[in-house]
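#struct-pred

JT: dropping the chains for the assembly here, can someone run the whole complex?
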Amino acid sequence: MNLGLAVKCNKIVKKYPMYKGNYDRLKGLLLPYYHPEEFTALNGIDLELHKGEILGIIGLNGSGKSTLSSIIAGITYPDGGTLEVDGEVSMMAASAGLDNYLTGMENIKYKGILLGFSKAEIAEMTPDIIKFADIGEHIHMPLRTYSSGMKSRLGFAVSVHMNPDILIIDEALAVGDNSFTDKCMNKMNEFKENGKTIVFVSHAVTQMNDFCDRVMWLHKGKTLGIEKPEKIINPYCWFAREFNGLTNEERSRFEPTLQFYQEKYL
Amino acid sequence: MFSAVKTVVKENWDNRVRMVRLANYESKAQNNGTVFGFLWNFFNPALQILVYWFVFSIGLQVNPPRAGYPYIIWMIVGIIPWFYISAALQQGAMSIFGYSGVLKKVYLPLAIVPIKTVFSGLITHIWSMVVVFVIIFCSGNTVSDKVYQLPYYTFCIVCFLIGWSLFSSAITVVFKDFQKILTAVIRLLFYISPIVWDQGNLPQAVQGFFKWNPFAYVLQGYRNAILYGVSISETIDTAKGFWLLTIILFLLGSSVHMKFRKKFMDLI
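RK: done, full complex below.
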């Protein structure tokens, strides 16, 4: 892989078989020539992500954003194409990998162990995590008593302090309040200055505009474009508005292009 | 097949520290949120032992198969490893399916997931065995001079369970009914293994059939080492069957695990 590249996706394809019931699933897995209908979540994604870059991924629900982030994180395997990743990846979805029945403190320890940190390393990062999450005495309470905002604060604090090379944030900041979101943005800028890579999946277009170096627009598993935020976000917003006004049948036939919306709205 | 074994072994060896620490953490975390915590690992078995002792020794008047030890001591030495085995059979099968919350969010080398459940159970088992020895000595009984051979039988259990968890965790993901079948089979195994009753009086033909039960070998082994002073070398015939089965299970388990691992995340 080229020096300076953190992630390189080459024609990534991901298909999910749509099994009709449990018997169908068993047949699909055991019989080599039985192929159920498939849903194509990703259809040939190319992506080169540089170290120290912040990439935004934008798209409607079901466009493949989360599938792509989970493939980059090494959690899901692609069905086609190749993926090269240089460095440790950490994915942070809202309350990622946190256990509802453990307290905040226990969760910090558990996540640390999961990611393979030693006892001393975990002890060293714990005060920083507590300080950053800033949820007071609740840190000693089980997570199931937390509000969604508090979970997200702890989840983010844990993820950033475990110090991955590539951080994927999958719609995890949506529930935080403004002051916390600002704090997260500062932290991510610090990340960026240290040459870390961030993939930022979100519907918060303003944040994305301020913060990302490039934005990728996904639609039905295909890339419509990867460009600077100001060239993508406005066209995307107009597209989303138009798309919402369509009937289901019109939507399935609708083939948007970036160029069309750029010419119309920029 | 051998590349599958190689991957499974390598992933576990490379992540051995992480795997053991996870196992250790989970053996403690099982009782999180309860007041008595780790002690529950002892209360529950104690209560079960009390019930079986009452039914079999007081009620049915089952005699200990050999003179020298009371029924309860004979039974505890067999039932404690069975508690480990039966729990690990279930937990091994559920290890990937039941861990989806973590696996879908955090990258983990998948081969360590089934195997860590074996070790998390082992930690509890070792503490239970400490209690067994305390009971033996406090009740005025003694152990045999072959007790140093006990770790071999524990090793046997661990090896068998490793193959089993690799195999069963993959099957459970694909075929969820497996879990239900397993519950029934474990209940059956409890009665056909030499746990609460002795099989020495059965007809030869039935005994020959029961010989293939891998758990009979290790449970009897626990008693041979702790109580009877029968050496490993005296049961080499049964050992061959046990190890053959264990090796087949491990090879099969590794292959099935590697065959389905790319689909695990889409199915759990």
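JT: nice. The mean pLDDT of chain A is 84. Residues 102 and 142 of chain A are 5 Å apart (CA to CA).
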